[in-house]
Write a structure and sequence with these properties.
The complex is a heterotrimer of chains A (331), B (328) and C (322). With 331 residues, chain A is α/β, with parallel strands linked by helices. In chain A, the strands form 3 sheets. Chain A has a 6-stranded mixed β-sheet with strand order 6-7-8-3-9-10, sandwiched between helices. Chain A has a 4-stranded antiparallel β-sheet with strand order 2-1-4-5. A two-stranded antiparallel sheet of chain A has the order 11-12. In chain A, helix 3 runs parallel beside helix 5 and helix 4 crosses helix 5. The radius of gyration of chain A is 21 Å and the shape is globular. Chain B has 13 helices and 12 strands. Chain B is an alpha/beta fold and 328 residues long. In chain B, helix 4 packs across helix 5 and helix 7 runs parallel beside helix 8. In chain B, 36% of the residues lie in helices and 23% in strands. The chains are: A alpha/beta (331), B alpha/beta (328), C mainly alpha (322). Chains A and B meet through helix 6, helix 7, helix 8 and helix 9 of A and helix 7, helix 8, helix 9, helix 10 and helix 11 of B.
Amino acid sequence: MAEPILEVTDLVKHFPVRVGVLFKRTIGHVKAVDGVSFTLNKGETLGVVGESGCGKSTLAQVLMRLEPPTSGGAKFEGRDMFAMRGAELRKLRRDIQIVLQDPYTSLNPRMTVGDIVGEPFEIHTDVAPKGSRRRKVQDLLDTVGLNPEHIHRYPHQFSGGQRQRIGIARALALRPKVIVCDEPVSALDVSIQAQVMNLLGELQSDLGLSYVFIAHDLSVVRHLSDRVAVMYLGKIVETGTEDQIYERPTHPYTQALLSAVPVPDPTQRGRRDVIRLTGDVPSPINPPSGCHFRTRCWKAQDICATEEPELVVRTGDHPSACHFAEERTVV
Amino acid sequence: MTAPLLEVEDLHVEFRTRDGVAKVLNGVGYQVNAGETLAVLGESGSGKSVTAQTIMGILDTPPAFVTKGAIRFHGEDLLSASDDRRREVRGDGIAMIFQDALSALNPVFTVGFQIEEQLTVRRGMTRKEARARAVELLDLVKIPNARNRVGEYPHQFSGGMRQRAMIAMSLALDPEMLIADEPTTALDVTVQAQIMDLLRDIQKERDMGLILITHDLGVVADVADRIAVMYAGRIVEHADVYQLFRAPGHPYTESLLESLPRLDLKGQELKTIKGLPPSLTNIPSGCPFHPRCPRAVDVCRTEVPANHRLGLDRTSACHFAEEVVSRG
Amino acid sequence: MSDPGASGAGLEKAAASAVGDLSHVDDSSQKQGKPRSLWSDAWGELRRKPTFIISLVIIFIVVVMAVFPSLFTSVDPRAANLDNYLKKPSADAWFGYDVQGYDVYARAIYGARASLLVGLFSTLLTVLIGSVVGIVAGYAKSWIDSLLSRFGDIFAGVPFVLGAIVILTTFNSPTENPSATRIITQVVLSIAALSWPVSMRIMRSATLVAKQQDYVKAARGLGASPLRIVFRHLLPNTVAPVLVYATIALGAFIGAEATLAFLGIGLRPPVVSWGVMISESRDYFQAAPHMLLFPAAFVTITVLAFVILGDAVRDALDPKSR
C-alpha cells in the first residue's frame, strides 16, 4: 500500500535579484521553483526531469532545508518540515540526506575519506559511540563497493565514480529514510554510470530507501524511477508512473523532450516522431504569463497566455498541466 | 573509389609531464570522405579530443609530442607541413567547433567581428562585404534577427545560440571538413536535437566531411555513417553504424551497449564494465582493455591484438573479433 | 617596494580559482597508493625545486643571523671607534666602517634581527586581522560583507608611505628616541593597519568560492554548525592563497621597514636594522658607498628570497599546474 513519506504542497522559491553598492535594492526575482506539489511514497523512486533552468536543483536544496522556501509547505512523515527547529530539525537531518552531482567538489579535498564518511557521526554524536565509529565507516565503504582499507586516503586519490560512491556512503551513514539524488551520475563516464546506478538500485531494495531522483537524462531517470515528474521553468507540467510518462505522455513539453532524446538504435532513424522546439528556454526571471511553456509550444492559443493550466487529470490516466493535453506515443 | 578527404595514419602522441610520460595516442588511424560523418566514440582519456587537436595542429607542444604517424588532407601530409601551411589549412580546409562555446568564443569581441575578421584577413573582403556575409551566416544557422545580433557579444547569447554562432564562425571560410568536439554535451537535450539537425543539414548542403567526437551512443546512432571506437589511445573498432549496433565486434563496444539505460526499454538489468579506465602513464600490457574484459584470457595480457578484418571497411582490435561479432 | 599592497593584487583572483578548480583530466585507477594529502603532494614537489631550496637556504641563513649573530661576527656592533671613520672594506672589516666608526659588517649581522622581527610580526598581524575579517565577510550575510569590505576599502585607499608617516609621527615626534621594543611595536602596528585589507580580500575571495563548493552544502545538509563549517571546511581550503601572500608579504614588509627607517619615522638609532643603516648612509653615498651597498644588498637578497619562496609555494599549491 502506497504510504506517503514526503508530501510537498505548492512549494515556491524565488531568489531576489539585488543591485547596489552598500545597500542593495531588489529589482526582480528569479522564480526558480514556482509552485510545485508532489508526493513521495515509502520505498519508491520519484524521478524529477527537466532541462536547465527548470528549478530541479533548487528544489533539491529547498527539500534539504539548505535554502528556506519563499512559500508553500512540505510534510515529512506527516510533520511540517519547514517548521522544525533545534532538536527536531537535527533529527530530520538524519532522515533526509543528499547525494550531489559533482564528484570533484562534493568531497572536502583536505579531509581523508574516513573523516568525510565519519563526519555525520561527529555531528550527530548520539548515533554511534566513539569507539564504534571507525568500524561503521569501514562498513559503509564496504557497502558501496570500496575497499575499507582505504580509509586514510584523500579524495584526489580516487576516480570520479569512486568519489560518487564515497558521497553515497556519507549519505547513508545516518541511516536516512529519504535520499535526494541531485544528478548523481551526470558527471560520470558512461561505463561508470551503470555501476553507480546499479548501486543505488541495490541500496534501495536492501535498505528500504526512498529516492527523489533528479536528472536531466531521461534514459537514466526511466531506469531507476517508479514515478516521474516533468519540470519546466519552475513548475511540474506532467506527472505519472514511469510507464504513463514514457509510453503515453500528454503534455507537449514532455512529448518534445522524449522526441529529442537520441536512442542508441540506428534503425530508428526517420521512424521516430520528430518534434522540435524552437529557441531556447526563457529566463526564470521573467517567465511567460499563463502557461510558462506557451512561447515554444505548437499548440499555443490565446487561453494559454491568460489562464495558467492546473496540474490535473485531463485526458488519459495521469495529471497534466496543459489546456490541450493529448496522448501521443513518442518513444 | 575516390580518395579520402582526410586520412589519419598510425598516429602516436605522447604527453611528457613531470609525473611521467602519458601515451595518449597509440596508433590511431581513420579516414573521412567528403559528405560522410565519422563518429569518434570514446570516454574521457580515450584520446578522441587529442586526435582532433593534432589534426588541427592546436596541441600544446610541449608537453605534447607527435612521435609517429601521418595526417593526410587531400593527400598532403600536414604533420610535415610548415606552420604557415597548417595555418592556411585551418579554417579553410578543416574547421573545428568545441564543446563550450563560451570559452571558445573571444568574450571581448562581438560575434560579428569574430566572423568578419576571418573574411577580411583571409579572403580580402571589405568591411561591408564581410558584414553582409556574417549576417548571412548567422541566418544560415537560424539565429533569429541576425542583422541586429551580429553586433552582440558572446555572453549576450543563450547556450544554444552561442553554439550556433560558433558553427557560423567555423563555416566562414567554407571549409571542406568540420570537426565537432562534443558540440552538444553541454546543452539541454531539446537544444541538442536542434543543433544536431542543423549540423546534419549544413553537412548535406555543403557535402562536407564531418568528424563528430562524442561519448553519447544515442547521438552516434542518429547521425553517424561510420564509427571509430577509441579506448586508451587506440581505435578498437571501426565499422558502419548499422553493423556496429546490430553486432558489435569488440568486447568494449559490446559492454558499452549493454550498460546503457534505454529510453525505450525499462527494467533491463544494466550490465556494468568492471574496473576503471586505464592510466595513460601505465597502459596495461597486451590489449589495453584486458583488465576489464569479460572474455580476457592469457593471450590478451601478452599480445597486442592486431586489427582484424571483419568485412569490407570493418575492423576490430581483438584476438577474438570473429567470435564477438557472431554473438550479435 | 614601498607599497606592500601591490603584492596582493593578483593573488585575489588566483585565490578564487585555486579553491574552485580541482578537476583532473585522467580519471584512472593509478592514483591509488599511500595516502597523500594535498599538503604532502605540495611538499614533495617543493623539495625538488632548486629555486625553493636556494631561497630556503638564504632565509635560513638570515634567520640564524638574527637569532645567533655572534656566530657570524665577534665584533661588537656598538663599539664605535672614530679612528675608523668611513674606512673602506679591508681584511679586518669586510664591509668597512661607517661614519661613526661602527663595523658595517657587524651591524649588518646584528641588524638582521630587527628587520626580521618587523617583517615577521607585521606579516602575522596582517594575516591574522585580514583572515578573521575576510572569513567573516565571506561567510556572513551580504550586508555585513558590504560593511566590512567598505571598511577595508577605506584603509586600502590610504597610500602606504603617507599613511605610515601620519601614524608614526603621531606616535613619536621626529626627535624622540623611543626604546627598541616600543618603536618596533609601532612600526609593526602601522604596517599591519595599512596592509590588512589585502589579506582580507584574499581570504574573502577564497571563502566566497569555498562556500559554494558542494562539500559545504553536504556538511550543511548533515546539520553541521557554522563553526564547524568555518574551521573544518572553509579554513583548510582557504589557507593556501593566504599562505602564498604571507611569504611574499614578509619580504615586502622587510623592505617597508627599510623605507620607513630611511624616512626617519621607523626604526632609528640606537636600534640597529638594515633600514636604519641605509638611512644613516644617506649623506655619505659618494664618499663611502660601502655604507649603503651592503645593508641594501642584504635587504634585496632577503626580499628576493621570500618572493621566490612565495612563487614556489604558490606553484606547488596550485592544483591547476599539475
